[in-house]
Amino acid sequence: MYILQFKEESPPPPCEIEKQRIVPTASTLELQQGFNGATWLILTISFLVAVKLGVSSILAEKFLFVSALLKHLGVDPIPYDTPKPAGHTRFVCISDTHSRTDGIQMPYGDILLHTGDFTELGLPSEVKKFNDWLGNLPYEYKIVIAGNHELTFDKEFMADLVKQDYYRFPSVSKLKPEDFDNVQSLLTNSIYLQDSEVTVKGFRIYGAPWYPVFCSLNHYSPSALESRTRTPWFNGWGFNLPRGQSLLDKWNLIPEGIDILMTHGPPLGFRDWVPKELQRVGCVELLNTVQRRVRPKLHVFGGIHEGYGIMTDGYTTYINASTCTVSFQPTNPPIIFDLPNPQGS
Fold first, then answer.
1. Which part of the chain is the Calcineurin-like phosphoesterase domain (predicted)?
2. CATH of region 26-340, choose from 3.10.270.10, 3.40.190.10, 2.40.340.10, 3.60.21.10
3. 125 CB neighbour count, 10 Å cutoff
C-alpha cells in the first residue's frame, strides 16, 4: 500500500491543442470498438507471457504500468504510514463500497473522496446506513458522487422505471416517488456532487456520475445506440448513457482549471480493462475531455472493480479506487495522495 506525494508543482507544459469543446467524430463508436479489440492485444499477450514465465499477476501488471508512474514528474510512491508533510493536504480515495463498509480500515487523511456505488441499489435505507458510516469518520471534508448502482439518485431513470411492467429488482420498483424524491438530502455528512463543483481547502473538485452503457457494443448496433439519449432498458442501471454525443454533453459541463475530477467510471485506456469481457470499457469522450481540455492534476474514479490501481499519462494521474473486488469483497485498500496546499489557502 502506498501514498502518492506530490511535490511543489512546476508550471504545466503547454497544451498543443487549442482549448475548445471536444466535438466527437462520426467514428467515435468505431474507435471504441477498435480499442476493445486488436489494439490491446499486445498488452494482453505481454501480460500472459509474464504470468507464464512464473511472474505473479501483480508483478506482471507492474511491468505494464509502474514505469509510467515513475516517469510522472514530482510523484513518488512512499510507504503507507509516512506522516503527511507540512503544507500538504492528504486525500483518501475509495469507491464501489456497495454497502460493505463495516470491515474497511480507513487511514488518516483530511479529505475523503468517494466516487460512487456506495450502495447496492440506492435504496433509502442503504443511503442512510452509508451516511451514518460517513458520520463516524474523522475527515474534515467528505465528498461523494453517485454511481450506476445509486438508482434512486437518477431521477430520469426512476421516472421511466415507474412506467415499466417489470424490473429485475422488486425492492426498487416498489418504491413510491415520495420515497426517493429527496434521497440526496439523506447525505447529511458529506458534500454530494452531481455535475457540480466545490472548492475545499483551496482545491477545486468537480464530480459527475455518468457512465457508458456497460459492454453494450456486444449487443447493440451503433445506429441503435445513437438513437437513444438515455438507456432505460430495464435490465440496466442508473446514470447510463450511450457513448458519443450524449456522454460528451455531460463532460462538456466540466470546467477548465479544476484540480481533481471525480467520475464514476474510467476514461478509455486507464484502469478500465475487464478480463471477462476481453474489453476496455472506459469512455473515449471522457478521455478526450480530460487530456485535451480539462487536464486536471488527478482523475479519481471507480466502476470497474478489476481496474483498481494507479496510472498516469505524464500529466494527469488516474486513480481507480474501487474498494470491492470483482467478487464484491471490500479488500482493496484506500488510495492516498498528498497535494501541496494552494497558495493563499
1. 90-306
2. 3.60.21.10
3. 12
C-alpha torsion sign, points 164, 170, 174, 180: negative
Q: What is the DSSP string of 35-72?
A: HHTGGGHHHHHHHHHHHHTT--HHHHHHHHHHHHHHTS
Angle at CA of residue 114, ends 291 and 234, nearest 5° = 85
Q: Is 318 helix (H, G, I), strand (E, B) or coil?
A: strand
Phi, psi (degrees; rounded to nearest 5) at 138? -90, 5
Least confident of 62-71, 125-134, 168-177: 62-71
**Is-contact 1 333, C-beta < 8 A?**
yes
CB neighbour burial string for 166-185, b if at least 16 within 10 angstroms, e if fewer: ebebeebbebeeeebeebbe
| Grid cell listed for 78 | 512512499
pLDDT tens digits, residue range 194-248? 999 999 999 999 999 999 886 443 333 344 334 444 444 334 789 999 999 999 9
121's CB contacts (< 8 A; 6+ apart) are 149, 151, 152, 169, 171, 172
Using alpha carbons only, what angle is made at residue 74 by residues 72 and 44, rounded to the nearest 5 degrees?
A: 20
Q: DSSP label at 322?
A: B
Nearest-CA neighbor of 112 among 191, 53, 41? 191
Between vectors from CA 45 to CA 39 and to CA 46, what angle results, nearest 5°?
A: 105
pTM for the predicted model, two decimal places: 0.79
The rounded distance, in Å, linking the Cα atoms of 150 and 152 is 6
Separation CA 158–CA 247 (nearest Å): 19
The bridge status of strand 240-241 relative to strand 211-212 is parallel
Q: Which residue has the higher pLDDT, 159 or 32?
A: 159
At residue 92, φ and ψ (nearest 5 deg) are -120, 125
Give 198's strand partners: 205
Q: Is 163 or 174 the better-scoring residue by pLDDT? A: 174
312's grid cell: 498516469
